[in-house]
Amino acid sequence: MKQLIKNPFLWLCCTLLFIPFLIASPSNAQCTMTSGQIDAAVASCSANDLDCFVSVAKSNLSCAANIAWYYMIMYAPDDPTAVLNSFLNALPDSYSLTEGLTASIDAAHRANQSEQKAGSTTSANEYPYGQ
User: Is the dihedral of CA 30, 35, 38, 40 positive or negative?
Assistant: First the structure.
């Protein structure tokens, strides 16, 4: 390692060889779409059309987790595993993509469950003038 640091040519070569792997790696990509852009991207999808959302995610890999989260929040499916499997089967195999999708879908599912539980234990969902 000391020789590598002492020899600038070796340091430069190693660095230049490593940079393309960093650039090509999907794990370093951050979603740059705003919520408005995601809304616009999925606007063409009909209600609850999971395949359409997966297709949008395929064309925006860095935002796939956000698109999956959007689907989960909007349509609150009972089985988040089916949604996760649909996204994972259609998208390239990548550890970071898998982790992001899993975390996103899990968080949205927990949020949906919390909302359902809160609605069932409060009077917020009752008719304002009785039943």
Answer: negative
- Contact indicator for 46, 52 with CB cutoff of 8 Å: yes
Burial 86-96 (b: 16+ CB within 10 A, else e): bbbeebeebee
- Give kind and range of the element (H or E) at residue 7: none
Contacts 24+ apart (CB under 8 A), 80-87: 80/105, 80/106, 80/108, 80/109, 83/50, 86/50, 86/51, 86/54, 87/54, 87/57
**Tokens for 94?**
């990548």
Q: Are 27 and 94 in contact (CB under 8 A)?
A: yes
26 is written with which tokens?
């999907």
| 58-92 pLDDT per residue, tens | 999 999 999 999 999 999 999 999 999 999 999 99
Residue 56 neighbours by CB distance under 10 Å = 20
